[in-house]
Protein: ABC transporter related protein
Organism: Cellulomonas fimi
Amino acid sequence: MTGTPGQATVAGAGVRADGVRVRYGDRTVLDGVDLTVGRGELVALVGRSGSGKSTLLRVLAGLEEPAAGRVTLAGAAGVAFQEHRLLPWRRVAANVGLGLPRAGRTGAVRDALAAVGLADRADAWPTHLSGGQAQRVALARALVRRPPVLLLDEPFGALDALTRRHSQDLLVRLHARHGCATLLVTHDPAEAVRLAGRVLVLDAGRVVAEVAADGRDAHARVLDLLGVHPPAAIPGGAAHGSGGPGRVPAGPY
Ligand SMILES: Nc1ncnc2c1ncn2[C@@H]1O[C@H](COP(=O)(O)OP(=O)(O)OP(=O)(O)O)[C@@H](O)[C@H]1O
């Protein structure tokens, strides 16, 4: 253990950021971010709205240049976002196989779609899919090259609660099977604690804390770090929020 928030203890980094800085005009959005995601790890990144989570993910994905600092990946990353970003004029299989070399493409696409439970929708148009199915196709597209690194920005944020739960379970299974270093940006502390091994907290452009997700009271700890405090208990009454491993309603963070 290095004792530094964000630094994995496992040997061999899948993702590594050292001193990453991003400025927009005179605003510093990332202020020296250090983090490591080890091979085979699933790490969640939480933070208040505007703390820089999506910016960091874009920098890690190589979609944006940092003003300073360094990003090292074990190889090309698979990426998925809150919006599925499928091309509506291409069928599902063509979306998944976009940019793959012709040799082996059919088999790779078939395997990726089977892995997300959509082998029978290869010929469908994206507009004919449900939101959850489209997001699973986006996951298949992210995984089709068997990347060593998976970067996910709120991939389940737009889904209804039940579909979200199924999709979360699917991610855990896919992660266990592929073992890619996975960084999951999420607004949802309950999702972070349920899916990840470690939860990193981003605040004002820095990783300020790390919580072991299997630790006692991990959910409450993450909420606390986000500045969300439980309301006074309602005697004899049910709390108005639920669904997470805490007593605390999920609020807007
Ligand atoms: N292209 C841009 N130009 C200028 N400012 C930007 C740009 N992209 C993001 N920002 C600003 O940078 C800050 C961080 O944005 P970012 O989207 O990374 O936050 P976030 O933590 O992902 O927020 P949310 O949880 O609301 O999605 C915000 O204040 C945002 O307004």
User: Anything to note?
Assistant: Strands lie at 13-24, 27-38, 42-47, 68-73, 77-80, 149-153, 181-185, 198-203, 206-212. Residues 24, 29, 47, 49-55, 187 surround adenosine-5'-triphosphate (CB under 6 Å). Residues 238-253 have pLDDT under 50 and may be disordered. Residues 88-146 form one domain.
